[in-house]
Amino acid sequence: MKVTIVGSGYVGLVTGACLAEQGNNVFCLDLDPKKIEILNSGGVPIYEPGLKEMIERNRAAGRLQFSTDIAASVAHGDIQFIAVGTPPDEDGSADLQYVVAAARNIGRHMTTPKVIVDKSTVPVGTADKVSEAISEELEKRGLSTELCSVVSNPEFLKEGAAVEDFMRPDRIVIGTESTPAGLRAKEQMRRLYAPFNRHHERTYYMDVKSAELTKYAANAMLATRISFMNELANLADLVGADIEAVRQGIGADSRIGFGFLYPGTGYGGSCFPKDVSALSKTAKEHGRELKILDAVEAVNEIQKYILVEKIEKRFGKDLLGMKFALWGLAFKPNTDDMREAPSRVIIQELVKRGATIVAYDPVAMPEAKHCFDLDFQGNSEGLKKVSMVADPMAALDGCDALVIATEWKVFHTPDFDQVMQKLTRPIIFDGRNLYEPTAMKELGIEYHGIGRHN
Ligand code: UDX
Question: Which residues participate in NAD(+) binding (predicted)?
């Protein structure tokens, strides 16, 4: 099938590459000429396992192209995915200007029937706005508004596993209108996703608004589990229980399940913080407060400081002259994404208290450099206190303790003899509970996990 993806960012690129991989002819549009130039010269502007190879393969096969040409992009796809950014507004709601602009461009150029798919995470009711924008443009040109139908098809991609998630989805959610054009759109979506449903049907068809809400509900539920576990972990520390035992004890209940029950330094990234806040905002616009969700957000803000709190408890409030190694900068492993990464809060707070930081991350260091420049704007003295090194062990040299903020695989089984030799004091503050407290004790390492009774 002929598919256009409007927006060659994270979601757009993964969607485009994976649909091309299934044999579709995909046209990816982006208005940023630099991004398109990178893509057309064989580069990929984001890091995502497997994506570069998939893009190369499909470009070479002539199934995937990148361009800034709006008219050509609208002409190309019978199905037009809108996968542009929806950054948070100052008040926490999603900024829809790029989604609506993309819709208008489609309306301005289309001459044949099109299915318009909202792939970006957009608040309930956005499909109506997209539909209105396209209809207005069609009417201006005297064309029938029946030419298009808007579908909601939210993505459930995890960064670092996005290609895998797209190719082997738990479920596909498709929301369509009940008009004749909507029914035709549903059939086209069914055909497009048929290869993903080969072994069993994974698609849930529903109305547009339910599909839009499903995306937010899923992320809000997952964020709720994390904040809940973070609060319980903090309680476990106080009462002397081990949250890891509790996690397994409750996860074994099939109604609860094991996933997303890991306490840590708070959730980050581009989705959870933004989506939780946007859903709460949507509720407020409708005169409702989502009290649980507001608490989820508040708990998460506090949790980003948990390691700093533990460090203060151990060393006191004044950390002047102290040096900390920090392993892991990205908000989670297998990505270079630094958006809302807890490491940024930890670094800011430790530097504020006088400490120096030597950080290491397998992938995110170039991205982290930009973020530190932003975070320390106007504080060049602070910025000087943060450095990065190309090797995790080198980060430890002469440090008073190791702080772990992201659970990259390379940190799971380090050479602890070396760790102890390099640190001036064998102390680890582990925000991801990577190690067993008893094993650490046997090695003679002072270990501070999250909710691990130590
Ligand atoms: C998430 C959703 O999982 C995905 O379906 C959606 O499309 C986008 O948002 P992502 O942001 O890539 O994906 O990361 P995810 O792996 O879900 O982790 C989100 C955050 O929660 C990370 O900061 C992670 O460290 C944290 N987390 C996750 C925990 O603290 N504990 C857990 O048990 C799981």
Answer: 30, 35, 86, 121, 159, 274, 339
